């Protein structure tokens, strides 16, 4: 039996925690735990190996697997500017319930916004011009993604060509987060859908056919 744990951060009376992430707990028929994993990469890789007769998200060729792992664990996160994460955190903060706001604020400031040297999210200034500059850098980030993917043009639309992989779900999750944070009718989402010749709108539409992403056709 597979049990997935993921506590929504807006549950009344429940506080958001930095240490809440998707977790998979796998029991065999005796009730013994065979695997307890956190982090989406490790969970997806385990499921690939545990269920060999299902569609795969990880390639078998060593070179392709190394390229995917480097992209998912290092390159992708490095693309996006700190000012973008700051903007997103400030938009998200008031959406949490009161119990969640303080731990979210301190966790953001001390973890992936630690370069600003503040203890709380509210203490990190963000001017309108800085937010606009951050969004321009997000566009630069998508241009970088375009460079990584266009080498597959003619071979297929995905990171590795014809076959969808975990890397494509990483990109898709980021696109869905933009849709969710800024809103389906926002100028930001419309920007992303049309950047790079409309690649990301097409990318999401294709993911929607396979995975049912709700943002695809908005």
Automatic annotation (TrEMBL):
Pfam families: GST_C_7
Gene3D superfamilies, A to Z: 1.20.1050.10, Glutaredoxin
Glutathione S-transferase UstS-like C-terminal domain: residues covered: 85-209
Family matches, as SUPFAM superfamilies: GST C-terminal domain-like
Name of the protein in question: Glutathione S-transferase UstS-like C-terminal domain-containing protein
